[in-house]
Structures are given as structure tokens and as C-alpha cells.
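# step 3/5: fold
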Amino acid sequence: MKVTEIAVHHPLVVAAFTSSLAIFGILAYTSMSIAVVPNVNFPSVTVSTPYPGADPETVEAAVTTPIESALATLQNIDVNGLTSTSLQGMSVVQVQFNTAADPNTVSTDAERVVNGARNQLPPNPNIVPSIIKLDPNAISVVTVAFTGDQPLALMEDFAENVLQKQFNNVPGVSSTTIQSGLTREVHVLVNEGALRARGLAVTDVVSALQSGQFQTPAGTIWQGDRSYNVYFDALAHQVPDLRNLVVKQQPSGPVYLRDVATVQDTYQQRQAIVRVNGQEGLAIGVAKTPQASTIDVVNAVKAAIDTLQPQLSQGTRLDVVVDRSVYTQQSFNTVQRSLVEAVIATGLILLLFIHTWRSTAIVLLSIPTSVLTAFAVMSLLGYNLNLMTMRALTLAIGILVDDSIVVLENIARHLGMGKNPIRAAIEGRSEIGLAAITITMVDVVVYVPIAIMVSSVTGQFIRGAQAFGDIFKALAVAILLMYMLMMMLFNSVTLPLAVIVMMSLPLATVGAFGAMALTDTPFTLFSLLGFAVLLGLVGKNAILLVDYTEILEQRGYNRTDALLEAGPTRLRPILMTTLSVMSALLPIASGLEEGSELLKAAAVVLIGGLLTSTLLTLVFVPAMFTVFDDIQRGIGRLLRRGAPENHPHGDTGTGEV
């Protein structure tokens, strides 16, 4: 082949090209962020609307329904993605969008339609919808405890005005939240006897507070065991201002709030208590931006803590109590080690079968080049380095060297015939060229539809039905494309059916389900992804065997002799590629290493499917090849028998017999 001849005669050009790819990959690797999970993007918006004093039924009819109807007009809402909850004094409507939605505009679009529905809401100044875009990447990567023997109110104030601002300025930090602290709140304790004596009800107090010209943090009116949330509108500098609020004008004079209730300047009821080593305090959660590295952000927060320590009051301290970078770093180190181990195992397998250091070194050089090139592509597509992508690379080591093994093994076979290296390289590559291209294209036609159709699988764990449906659709498209590819390779309509439908898929499926049963592995999203990867792997073995059988038939072998020759000849590359993949899968399938939990199901499926497919390929492929070849020949004879005879000289009209 022309490309092979160019590579053989111009090795420096090839070396320069591959070195360039490796350099780009190294630069990409050093610049990519490190995290536990991928950056997922499934846009979600929550619209929260207060309706003070209203019961859930009133909230649903007056607020939830109009807002829900307005949001329903938005495009790209996920299946069952519009949900609502009506509570006492509060409406919450959530919109989950599918992957076709633009995450940068969903909150703006939601705000636009909600504002358009404002005239349908009750004419109450307190009914103001707030729209929040939920970011699944905004989980805290580090939690800092602020503890000490100071009053909690003072610590809360220091945390809000000093600590939170400092942590927000750390590079890569998206937001910070104070947890388990105190939130100032005004309580109004109503005296029911005083109200009855003046002919008033608690609703009169609520109305006065809501219509008065005051604005303080959200407060609560207590009437026995019942409470009423209150929202104030204008400015009240001191709690005494509230006590002087006029509840109602009566003939005898104004009734002030102080006459019918006790006003307390206090704090909201705490939902949790933070203690470190017995000292009470509060916690500050720090979330990173999607692009930032978990490890870098946590290290920067720790550096900020060291800077802040001298500014703390005596008796207080800052401690990191939750550090997600530890698991991330340990898992990442484990995955890197597994990646190296997979490369070494692949090299040993090559050495065992080919018996030459040179051939082993050639294939091992192709692995880092391929991996580094993958890093460059991942960086361009905006991926980060996480457990899933790194484990996927480990799993793919055997696939990466698949083509190299097939070509190199065939070249080694030609060298064994006594040919010189250049001739062996050119003729060995040419002999297997079409099959090598085809098995590479099998990867493309199998994995590209999956990549396109399930691009948001990692963000759809809570919506299993849709994610499963996407993968099944992708598998159907992949099988169809794989069939068409083999139809072009074999120039046959029936042989691809033998290779894919009658042999590859059933044999692999039996082994995969058997392995799942033996290891008690549930059928999950990841096991289904394992079946998708398996589809491409098992098809390659059959392609190698059938392609060489047809090559031998073209050289004059009868079908039986061709099959008997092709089986042993192609056994070595089939075993080499299968063992290479399985050696990379075993650490993941064991589930003992950090970060292997998610892909364990996929690894079990692949090992089981590869075992049965490889062991039975040499039995079932020749049998199915014979059956479908007979069918194809029989159809050909029928078509030729039914075709009209060819009269090159036409009808002479002489009536000759």
C-alpha cells in the first residue's frame, strides 16, 4: 500500500509526525483539570415563589399553576422534566432540560416566561418568583470548620464578612456557603388575650407587618404552636421600630404591635450543629468551577487558611474537615498505576507470542503515542481528567494496540518466510490492509453513535429509562453501520449476517450474561455500556478469520482448506488482542482498586463476552461461514438460472434452430 511504502522509506517523517502528536498530548495532559467525575451538563432551573400565609391548595391554584403553564412553553424540556411542589406559603417549580438545551440561556429563558406570567399571580408585593439555575458541578470540594470559644453570633459575623470573602477570591472557587451558622430573625409572639380584648385577630398583625414600611430579615409570628412567615418591605433600623408599628386604628386610638405581641430579635432555629473536637462552630463549604482542578482548588484553599490563621480571634481556629482532593488524588494515582500496568502486561503478552524485543518495543511505542493523542483530543473537546475517562483509557489499552498487533503479527509471519524486513513490512501490511482498516472502522461505527447519542449519560443516572433508551438506540445504529461496513469488505449481503448476527453477538452475549451471573453483577447503565464496547471487540475477531479465508480462496484454496488454514494462522493475533484487553480489565473487574467501582460492571461484561467469543470463534465462524456461503452460492445459481440467455448477434429472423 502507498502509505506503508512511504512510511517504510521515510521513517524520519513518521517519527517527526508521531513526536508532534506526543508533544501536543503532553501539553494537553498538563493543562487538564483533575476531578472525580466528568463535568456533566444537564441544565436545570428551579423557580421558588413565596406566598405568605397561603395554604398549599391556594398556593397551587394561584401561583404554581400559572408559573408551571408558562414554563411548559419552553423548548427542550426533558421527558417528565417539569415538576412542581406546593407548600405552606411557598411554590417550587423545577424544570429539567435535555441535552439539546443551551445551558447558558435556560435561566434567562425561564425568567422571561415567568415574568410574562406575573400578571396572572395574585396582586401581592411579596409574591416575587426567584429563579435559580442548578449546577451539578457546584458540590463542595472542601469543607472548612470554624470553631472556638467565642460567641457563635460573633463567629457568624466574622465568617460572613471576612472568611467567606477570602475563600471566594481563591482561584477556581465558584461559591461558598456557610452551614450550621446562625441566621438573624425577628420573632413576633402574639398575645391572643390582648388581641381578643381589642377585637383583633392574628391576621391583622400579619397584614400590618406586610403593609408597613419596614424591611428586616424574614420573621415569624407565633400563635401558640402555629407560626406565620412574614416578609417586610422597607427599612427598619431597630427592633423598637417594629414595636411601634400601628396594627390598627380604632376609635379609642391606635393599637401598636407592642400592645398585642412581644417582639424578639433572635435567630432562626438551627438545623444542624457543627463540632470539632468538642468545640461548637460553623462550617464553610467551598465549591469549584467546572473547569477548575479539584486538587488545585483544595490546595489553594489550604494556603488561604494558613494566611487567615493570624487574623483569627484568640481561641478560634480553621480546620479542613472534608477534603475531596484526597480521594481524587489517591484514585488518580491508582488509575495511573493501572494504566502503566496495562501497558506492561500488553508488552509481556506480545513478547510471549512474538518472541522478539523489537516487535514488542514497536507496539509499546504506539501505546503512549495513542494515549497522548487522546489527551489532546479530550482537551479540545473540553473533557477533564477524571476516574471515568482514565479508567476508560486503561480499558482501551488493548483496543489501542489491536491494529498494531494484527499488522505486526502478520509482518512477523512474513519475516518467518525468509523475506527481508522492508519486503515483509510492505507485503505483510498489504495482505492484511483491508481487514486492518475495517477493524479500525468498526471502532468508529460502533463508538461514535454511542458518543453522540449518550453524551449526557453521566448526568442522567437519576433518569435511568432515558439513558438506557439512548444506549439501545445507539447500539441499533452501531449494528446497522457495522453490517454495512462488513458488507463492503466482504462484497456480500449474507456473510456479514453470519459474522455479526449469527456468531459475534450471540456468543459474546452468552458469556457476558454468564459472567454477570457468576459475579452477581446487576444490569446497570455501565454494564450496558460494556455491551456496547463488546460489540466492537468481538466483531474484529470474526473479521480477521473470514477476511483471511477469502484471501486464501482467491489464491486457489478450496473453502475447507482455506478455513483450516485461516483458523490456526489468525489464532495468534486473536489471542494476543483478547489477552491484552483482558489484562487491562482484570484490575477494574476486581473492584479492589480506587475508582474502579463505576466501571466494574462494564469490565465484567467485557471479560465474559471476550472469553466465550474467543474460545468459540474458531468453531462457530467456520460453521456459519460454510452455511451462509452455501446460501449465497445457491442464490447466485438461482439468479443465473432465471436470467435470459445472451444473444450477442441478436435475432436473425431466419428461423434457424
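# step 4/5: annotate
Residues 22 and 372 are 5 Å apart (CA to CA).
# step 5/5: archive (pending)
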